[in-house]
Known about the structure:
Radius of gyration: 21 Å
Strand content: 5-15%
CATH topology of the largest domain: Aspartate Aminotransferase, domain 2
Number of strands: 12
Order of helices and strands: HEHHEHEHEHEHEHEEHHHEHHEEEHH
CATH architecture of the largest domain: 3-Layer(aba) Sandwich
Number of helices: 15
Number of domains: 2
Strand order of the largest sheet: 2-8-7-6-5-3-4
Mean pLDDT: 93
Structural class: alpha/beta
Distance between the termini: 44 Å
Largest sheet: 7 strands, mixed
Amino acid sequence: MSVSATLAASETIAARRAAGEEVLALAFGEAGIPVHPRLAQRLAQAAAKTSYGPVSGIRPAREAVAGYWTRRELPTAEHQVLLGPGSKPLLFAVLRAVGGDAVVPSPAWVSYAAQAELIGRTPLRVSTPSGQGGVPEADRLRRTVTDARRAGLDPRIVVATLPDNPTGRLASEAAVKGLCEAARELDLVILADEIYRDLVFEDGAFPSPAAWAPERTVTTTALSKNYALGGWRIGAARFPDGGEGAELRERVRGIASELWSSTPMPMQHAAAYAWSDPEELTERLTASRRLHGSVARAVAGIFRSVGCEVGEPQGGFYVWPDFGPLAPVLRERWNIESSQDLAAVLLDEFGVGVLPGSAFGDACEPNRKRSGDEDGLRLRVAVPGVYGSTESERLAALMSDDPVATPWIADALESLGGKLSALTGTRRP
């Protein structure tokens, strides 16, 4: 098992910068905004709480998470909640507790398939509906699971990401309902990763699988994306109410007791405050959505301006450009045949760090496959790398009514556009 592609890319870019190279870091999925002072204060106040806590998490934190979901139209009781040191360990524990093979979207965040492989199971990739991301298309899901079972495999769980990493898209209500219907027919547990839920750019109903398949949906979240607390490592899982949900939660709790014992106590106290949605933090979320949304849309526009196909970002902080229309030009100019080649040229020749679509299990639909373009020539671009090089710049970008107009972001976007023009040989409008 190699190091996760996202973390490996971050380390590579850090090493190049340490060696004196200038790199526009658009590879790592970190929110890129300063911690709110009230959150830092809460963590400092709890720093002396060094004892082990209950495996499931302290009651005030679980009650806060239950309230968080209830306010988002998913009524939740504290006994349905289990905390962990980040959502990634919780995802792994749920996959292990459910057992069997796992269905993951194509493309999907790098760790879903890797975690299935870590427990000795087969990840089954199912394409998402056209123009959407994060949710396996229902009919394809049915065919894949039926064929897998005939072949002797044992799929028991399907993963969904809302909104999606890597595409930055939010699946439609119809797509999520279709997923829920198929999962019920196939008796699959749905593992809904909703870590970016608070960063959907437009207001409106959120299509959580737990709303239509509550008896079989486990939902996870964390504070690493909405409040940019990735290094604090705290996440939460919501289990179905009732006997089967309680049984699954207990199996996950048993796994947790052997893997991490308990979530760090100071983080739990800070998280109890964060998940209670105090006004000062909800204001921070509003500013975060404005920053991520305005920059992601601007970056998508830059990629379109050189001839890429790009779906409009809807949440999170990612852009998913497809260089397929430019494949002949890229092949002729740079001998690029794959998304790995494309990412390597951007880094080595232009100092732009991104991730290849292949890292996310990207695969072309048969009717889109082009000669020499088997993985679609797609990239995942994480936009927080342009928010600023100092804490003060990032805070100013966050507080700006027009973040893309701040000088350092405007300069970074202009530089990116120039590099893409040089890569593709196109002239931007």
